[in-house]
UniProtKB/TrEMBL annotation:
Taxonomic source organism: Desulfosudis oleivorans (strain DSM 6200 / JCM 39069 / Hxd3)
UniProt name for this protein: tRNA (cytidine/uridine-2'-O-)-methyltransferase TrmJ
EC number(s) from the headed UniProt entry: 2.1.1.200
Reactions accelerated catalytically: cytidine(32) in tRNA + S-adenosyl-L-methionine = 2'-O-methylcytidine(32) in tRNA + S-adenosyl-L-homocysteine + H(+); uridine(32) in tRNA + S-adenosyl-L-methionine = 2'-O-methyluridine(32) in tRNA + S-adenosyl-L-homocysteine + H(+)
Principal localisation: cytoplasm
Gene: trmJ
Alphabetical UniProt keywords: Cytoplasm, Methyltransferase, S-adenosyl-L-methionine, Transferase, tRNA processing
């Protein structure tokens, strides 16, 4: 794939995020998988062991540029905050793990979106994968189907996803995509929504985050633009203003009736 086309498609800007990886050699192997498929942006969240020498053993000298540009961050929220579309890989299914795409389905969507939006895909620790707390930031989950033995090495999983992304990057997929809201913008909206919904007794105060997950799943299906997030936050501000005004008017009316 030519450098000119990769710049046009935005494909090379897709970021791989490894969340709490345990083994440095696996980080190096992921760098090698990415390099094979033309990707170079890697973030590593809170690695259990960080050893550049061990990483380079499996990355090989050909991938030194990928290794040297690795960005280390302390938590998942910080890692995903710049991105407008985030996917997370999962081997486990359940009620809290919905909106699941195949690797190919994810790749088609990601390659189209990445022309106008920053895109990232997350992979969890080798021994247990991504936690629900990590997946709450995801617009979609990606499940790699396997036979009876479903334990993929971290680098194998990265290679499968990168291969699908590479294959999905086609020049004839020239559809306009608006700028989606970043994770940072969405989290600000969710915080404001939760505050307002608690104030009007729509959410149960004992576990508001559980009920907010329904809104998160809805928004993830729709894919809000930055402009739409501003619109929703404006509505929340107006609801909050009206509630405070009604409360103040009620106090004033009560004082008129009972000046004591």
């Amino acid at each position: 794939m030519s450098e000119k086309f990769m710049k046009y498609a935005g494909y090379a800007g897709i970021t791989i995020i490894l969340v709490r990886p345990r083994i440095p050699e696996n980080i190096g192997a992921c760098c090698r998988a990415m390099k094979n498929m033309g990707l170079s942006r890697l973030k590593v969240v809170a690695p259990e062991a960080w050893d550049p020498v061990r990483i380079m053993k499996t990355a090989t000298h050909a991938c030194r540029d990928v290794v040297e540009k690795i960005e280390i961050v302390g938590d998942t929220a910080t890692a995903v905050s710049p991105f407008s579309y985030i996917a997370g890989t999962t081997a486990r299914m359940g009620r809290q793990r919905q909106m699941v795409l195949s690797p190919g389905g994810f790749a088609e969507k990601a390659v189209t979106l990445c022309r106008e939006n920053p895109v990232a895909v997350m992979f969890g620790p080798e021994d247990r994968g991504l936690e629900n707390e990590d997946l709450q930031y995801c617009h979609n989950l990606v499940h790699i189907p396997t036979s009876e033995f479903s334990s993929l090495n971290l680098a194998q999983a990265v290679l499968v996803i990168c291969y699908e992304l590479f294959g999905a990057a086609r020049p004839n997929q020239d559809h306009f995509q608006p700028r989606l809201a970043s994770s940072f913008e969405l989290e600000g909206m969710y915080d404001q929504m939760k505050e307002v919904l608690l104030a009007i007794d729509f959410l149960r105060p004992d576990n508001p985050d559980y009920w907010m997950n329904n809104f998160r799943r809805f928004v993830s299906r729709v894919g809000l633009t930055a402009k739409e997030v501003k619109l929703i936050r404006g509505v929340c501000r107006q609801v909050n203003w009206y509630g405070e005004k009604r409360y103040a008017d009620g106090l004033a009316e009560k004082k008129k009736k009972d000046p004591r």
